[in-house]
Amino acid sequence: MGNDDDAGGLRSVSRAVRALELIAEAGDMGVSELGRKLDVHKATASRLLATLADRGLVERDPFSERYRLGFGLIRLAGAAMTGLDLVRSARPILEELAERTRETVNIGVPSGDGVVYIDQVTGSRAIVSVNWVGQRTPLHCTSNGKVLLAHMDDRELDDYLSMPLARMTPRSIVDPTQLRAQLDEVRRRGWAQTLEELEEGLNAVAAPVRQSDGRVTAALSVSGPAFRMRPVDLPRIALLATESALAVSRRMGYVERRFATG
Amino acid sequence: MGNDDDAGGLRSVSRAVRALELIAEAGDMGVSELGRKLDVHKATASRLLATLADRGLVERDPFSERYRLGFGLIRLAGAAMTGLDLVRSARPILEELAERTRETVNIGVPSGDGVVYIDQVTGSRAIVSVNWVGQRTPLHCTSNGKVLLAHMDDRELDDYLSMPLARMTPRSIVDPTQLRAQLDEVRRRGWAQTLEELEEGLNAVAAPVRQSDGRVTAALSVSGPAFRMRPVDLPRIALLATESALAVSRRMGYVERRFATG
DNA sequence: GACGCGCGTTGCGGATCGCGGAACATCGCA
DNA sequence: TGCGATGTTCCGCGATCCGCAACGCGCGTC
Questions:
Q1: By C-alpha distance, which of A150, A128, A95 is closest to A224?
Q2: In A, which residues are within 8 Å of B10 by CB distance?
Q3: Which of A178, B113, B140, B218 has its CA 20 to 30 A from that of A233?
């Protein structure tokens, strides 16, 4: 899913990034295997991996001799996160929200045709804490994703809906018309919800985070098990999420307008 | 610090990674500036950044027009972390340790001439939770680092100690002889401590995590404010940390030997 | 043990791709 | 308006990196 082919740009660099993505998807990779997937000679793949390993972006398992993503990436990502003022500004607010709701709080941004979680705070009631940071999930079956879709340009939204929507669970919304109706509601009331649409037993609500120019560039969600986050509970939780999202937006320099619509 | 020059390998790829590291250090960067630091023509830097941006590893601030690290890196790092069995295995144990000590727990691995934290669980008493994941800190003034140094090959250790040790606080150990004595103690009693050597007011203890072959490849630490983690408290906390580290080691396939020394 | 098959790593020569220079557009500033 | 700095695009040439092939290695089979 999301094989964005080979875009333009410097060839080896492009190829290197592609290699990293492939390894990320597969978990690990051998030289010849990478060569086949990149459609290059295995000698080329070998040299590429050697370079990446030299720089610490990949490393080889001592036993299987296969390549995996390396710690260098984690270091770079750490710098990326601290460099992103969004994470910096949002952190304390996410923590407060996690404390108030006692559930897991995530903040995500659009990336490709999905949403990537860039930070997470685990609530005290979370039984098993899955770390979603860095994960990419589909837009149409996550609450964060619905928020982002709801505030997307019409053209982009049309593009997205022109592709078939993946069914992750029986309750995933895969009908574009139905999804559009939901997105209208999201815009109207200011928050989105998902009811076991990504994973069975997992509900969530999300609210938009705005940049200083008012554009929605991120979304903030509270998610938890369906038995604790029943549909009847969601409006209350969503209110807290909306407040927090607004607080983050303010930190990003957003000031509310007094226009009724935006 | 740690400008590892231009190592071998494919040129543009090497250069691209170098560029990412430079941007990580500086926070953000312009085209010409990068060109100067990489010692290439600005046209080259422009193309390089365009390619990286195309692939999502960097992105440009809409206003300042300067480049920053992008979300693509976070996505890759997320995959790297879930791919690393160390993080997977350690997570629940870190959480248990954080709950028992109510302080912040980190796990780190050596990278270059420092230690990189690859995962962290924030304890409930942590006042302000700094996210260290992805950060690189010097070996000689962190408890994790001391553990790693203590179990390093003699040659590597000599190399490290041949360079001057940075003084981060007044209490940093910068005398190689004194540090060696501490490392002996770390090996003997099985855990390391730092007393406000990295940051004033911050104490920590750490214990070694071993791979299946017995080599120490990571370290696990508990850190907190000096007034809660007084020197007299450290042995008790270190005992917990050592137990947890051993539990992680076992999950990695390590079985204790009955030899007195190793 | 010989053989075939797959993996990964090195030389090597030659085509390709990317580098550097230059020109151009833009912006801020005096 | 001129100046300096930044960033992008075009073009020709040459270093670089690719594909080939050969080699070493491990594994299973005949």
A1: A128
A2: 12, 16, 47-48, 51
A3: A178
